[in-house]
Every structure is written in structure tokens, then in C-alpha cells.
Amino acid sequence: MTTAAFLLVLTSAFFHATWNFFLKQSSHKTAFLWSFTAVSFVVFLVPMVAVTAVKGLTWSGAGFGLVSAVFHGAYGFSLARSYQLGDLSSVYPVSRGVGPALIPLAAVLLLDERISPWAGAGIGLVIAGIYVIHVQSWALRDVFQPLNALRLPATRAALITGGFITCYSLWDKAALDHLTPLGINQFSLIGYLVVLAPLAFAANASPVRSEWRERKWSIVAAGVCAPAAYMLVLAALTASRVSYVAPTREVGIVLGALAGVLFLGEGYGASRLAGSALIVAGVLTLGVAP
């Protein structure tokens, strides 16, 4: 991975953890997610139109964009549901951790990519760190406790969310041959707005109004951070392999877990720090992988 791509992905991870923190703090998750997506759509609409006017939009590009919209909309719904059921410091690592486990394998099988031993070691460290984050204590009976978490609705929802992350990461990598990062981002925002609208406005607009009244600046900040985070990843994908970029992005797991422990009062800080150290080691390994 090049140094430029590595720095782009690290910046993206910070932005991504930030908007997830704001989403977890919200009272009505779907309304908050829909609201900041609307902000993102408005903020990036003019730049997208300008770029599209210059580069054009083909029918194949539109097709790739619509499929991307479906994947992202489903991901948004699943993510909001996950945060309704579980903590930031557990849902975030699980949902973001499924990608590093699945994407490299899928990239090898579907995109004919190759993984170097250094990259394989880095991915292994990231996955090990994600597991350790969920160890509640170091007593022998608790070391295997994360496996029992599969029975919990929050964990299952987070795993489904991770599956959608895998889908859109691989699809959007292919879509870059037909669309600009701005174009893909705008299609993804349309997916969020369409899929989440029936839930955000299920009975009336009061949840949306309530979120704007109580968290206006958090909505605006998330509305800028979320698309910026993803476009930085798309930019990195133009210069590096998806099997390297996707796992490196998961350094945001460290930030998200620590934010949950430090600012939201979620427990198991020792495990979070130990797991975070493993993830950082994995990210650094991926950063120097050829």
C-alpha cells in the first residue's frame, strides 16, 4: 500500500468513527441517520453535478450506481437496527470486523487479487484484536465468551451489517471503473434516503424534528464526516488493492471502542485497550505490506 493511500484510509477511519459515535448518541437512530444523509446529499450535490457534467454518466455507470444504492441503503437500515440493540463498543467492532475477514477472501476469489504474507499477518492481527475487544475478563470461562455473543440479537444484526459492508466494498471497487468517487457517494446517499424514509417518517415527522431540535450540530457534523470518510476510501481504492484498503480502514474500530468506553460509559476497558493494540499492530503491518 502506498503512503498516500495509507494516510487517506487513516483519515477516513477517524471520520467514520466520529459519525458512528454521533449516531449511537441519538435517540431515534433511523431519523438521525436519515437526517444527516439528507445533509450529505445537499452538500455534495453541486460538486457531483459539476464532475458528472465534465466526465459524463453512462448507462452502465448508472446501473452500477443503482446497485450501490441498494447495498448502502440496506447497510444503513441494518446499522441503525444494530445500534438500537447494542453498545457502540461492541456493535462497531463486530460490524466493521466482518469486512477484514471476508473481503480479502472475496477479493482473491472474485477480483483475482493476491495477498502477500505481510498483508495476511496484518489481517490476522486485526481479526485477533476484534476478538479480544469482546473478552469481558481473562478468566478461562470468559476467554471464549465472544463466541456466545453470536446468540445475541445485537451481535447478529452487527454481523449482517458487516456482510453488507463486504458487499458494497467489493461492488464499489468495481464501480470505480464506471463512476467517480463523488458519483458513487451520491448514489449511496440516495439509497440511504429511499430505504430509511419509510422508517424515519413511519407515523409522522416528529422523530426527525426531535433529532434536529436536540442534535442539530451533530447531524451537520455527521453529514460532512460520513461522505468524506467514504470518498477518502474510494480515492485510496484507486491507488491500492481492496484487500489492503478495507482492513486498514478498520483502525476506526480502536477509536469507536475507546469512544464508547471513555465517553459513553461502556465497560471492559482493559479488553478494549488490548484489542486496540492488536488492531493497531495489524494496521501498521498492512501499511508496510507490498
Structural account:
With 290 residues, the protein is an all-alpha fold. Helix content is 83%, strand content 0%. The longest helix has 32 residues, at 206-237. It is globular and about 60 Å long. The chain starts with a helix and ends with a helix. The model has no long low-confidence stretch (mean pLDDT 85).
Overall radius of gyration: 18 Å
Helix content bin = over 70%
The overall pLDDT average reads: 85
Class by alpha and beta content: mainly alpha
Give the SSE string. HHHHHHHHHHHHH
Could you give a short account of the major beta sheet?
A: none
Number of strands: 0
How would you sum up the global shape? globular
Count of individual helical segments: 13
Strand percentage lies at: under 5%
- The number of domains is 1
Short structural description:
With 290 residues, the protein is mainly alpha-helical.
List the helices and strands and how they pair.
Blueprint: H1 3-25, H2 29-55, H3 59-85, H4 88-110, H5 117-133, H6 140-143, H7 145-148, H8 153-175, H9 181-200, H10 206-237, H11 242-249, H12 252-263, H13 269-288
Helix pairs in contact: 1-10, 1-12, 2-9, 2-10, 3-8, 3-9, 4-5, 4-8, 4-11, 4-12, 5-13, 9-10, 11-13, 12-13
